[in-house]
Design brief:
Membrane topology: Multi-pass membrane protein
Number of domains: 2
Shape: elongated
Radius of gyration: 33 Å
Subcellular location: Cell membrane
Number of helices: 13
Family: Belongs to the ABC-4 integral membrane protein family. LolC/E subfamily.
Helix content: 40-55%
Organism: Rhodobacter capsulatus
Distance between the termini: 28 Å
Order of helices and strands: HHEHEEHEEHEEHEHEHEHHHHH
Protein name: ABC transporter permease
Strand order of the largest sheet: 2-3-8-5-7-6
Length: 400
């Protein structure tokens, strides 16, 4: 084996320019593989952070019940009343919170009370969606702390957190008072404690975040919850987790994939595109190594014939060329991985992704996988030339 390695190394060093060119070609393929892995992985992380990363993966929400209409008998008139404003609630849901939090794969749980209302400041009026969150869990689902632009997103008694667009529309500033009236007619004077900016105009102009206790008073809800939002460690496990929650609690748990089916389909298509691009990079490596070793086999036919005449077995000859392929793959793989890693250091980390820049994720470069696949592909590419060399007739080869 050691002798075969020496011969393989000598063959490579005998044509240094050709070997260097081949190693650089393999390194280029590995660089493309690593670059595409980091780009596809980083793009997926960026999309998820801006979409599924800021939404609940499983939602348990009370369904509003609409009373059935009664058809009056002929000649009769039924009493007509105004529609009820009663908030749909999960009355026993709070009892299940410890169970939900203890389930494997659950990252965060956010009990909420939601409703609608009107925000007033002087003559300025804006219709808003009221969201009551438990203090300390303000960023459990939507990371309000990350989107904070002024003040604090910490919710407490008499505090409201609003979007930058809504604050601008009402002419508000931090620590000013504002009147919030719910659809139930309950009115409270609150202080603007924090301002956030998600970047989505609708959310920044529509949402008013208050504490759970404040929302309970506004919605005239002495007990129960409107909604429980759950974030998972693995968002792709949402369907299984929702089914498990329905079985354990009997609550109407719904996976994000029901509403986000198109997003999920786009992410899968993106991943498949990455596989195709990386496969083409590996195919390029195979073709380059195979063609080079075929040329080397043709040029070294007399030497191969002498080795065979001196008693070298076909397996030995095959081993020499396979080792050549492996050495080329290893050198090219290491060079390409080092170059790819160095190039990716120039890009911002995934924690600092910004719109308008390539969302490269250096942690998803798949360096070990790239080197391993490169060596295996180079060895596979060497098999055909190696078998061709082993089949050479010693007498015919020496005569050439």
């Amino acid at each position: 084996m050691l002798y075969a390695i020496k011969i393989a190394a000598r063959y490579l060093s005998a044509s240094k320019a050709q070997t260097a060119l081949l190693v650089v070609g393999v390194a280029a393929g590995v660089f493309v593989f690593i670059f595409m892995s980091a780009l596809i992985g980083g793009l997926a992380e960026f999309i998820l952070a801006r979409t599924a990363g800021d939404m609940a993966h499983v939602t348990i929400e009370a369904e509003a019940r609409t009373p059935a209409r009664l058809a009056p008998p002929p000649g009769r008139v039924l009493w007509a009343d105004q529609p009820t404003t009663e908030t749909a609630t999960l009355r026993a849901a709070e009892n299940f919170l410890p169970l939900i939090e203890a389930l494997p794969g659950v990252k965060a749980v956010s009990p909420q009370i939601i409703g609608s209302g009107v925000l007033r400041r002087g003559g300025q009026v804006a219709q808003v969606s009221i969201v009551g969150l438990e203090p300390g869990r303000e960023s459990a689902i939507l990371d309000l702390a990350r989107y904070r632009v002024a003040g604090s997103v910490r919710l407490g008694a008499g505090v409201v957190v609003l979007g930058k667009g809504l604050v601008k529309d009402l002419g508000l500033s931090l620590n000013q008072s504002v009147v919030l009236q719910s659809s139930h007619g309950v009115t409270m004077r609150l202080t603007l404690g924090g301002i956030y900016e998600i970047g989505a105009g609708g959310a920044d102009r529509r949402m008013a975040y208050v504490s759970l206790a404040t929302a309970r008073s506004l919605m005239a809800l002495p007990q129960g919850l409107s909604r429980i939002e759950i974030k998972l460690v693995d968002l792709y496990a949402a369907d299984a987790s929702a089914a498990r929650l329905r079985g354990l609690t009997g609550l109407p748990a719904v996976s994000w994939t029901r509403e986000g089916a198109r997003l999920l389909e786009a992410l899968r298509a993106q991943k498949q595109t990455g596989y195709f691009l990386k496969s083409f990079a590996m195919i390029t490596i195979v073709i380059g190594v195979a063609s080079s070793l075929m040329l080397s086999t043709y040029r070294r036919r007399p030497e191969i014939g002498i080795m065979r005449a001196m008693g070298a077995s076909r397996r030995f000859v095959v081993g020499v060329f396979v080792l050549q392929g492996g050495l080329i793959g290893a050198m090219g793989g290491l060079l390409g991985a080092a170059t790819g890693y160095g190039a990716l250091l120039l890009f911002p980390t995934r924690e600092n992704f910004r719109s308008g820049t390539l969302p490269m994720d250096i942690t998803q470069g798949a360096y070990g996988l790239a080197i391993t696949l490169t060596v295996l592909c180079a060895i596979a590419a060497a098999i055909l030339p190696a078998r061709a060399a082993a089949r050479l007739d010693p007498v015919t080869a020496i005569g050439q």
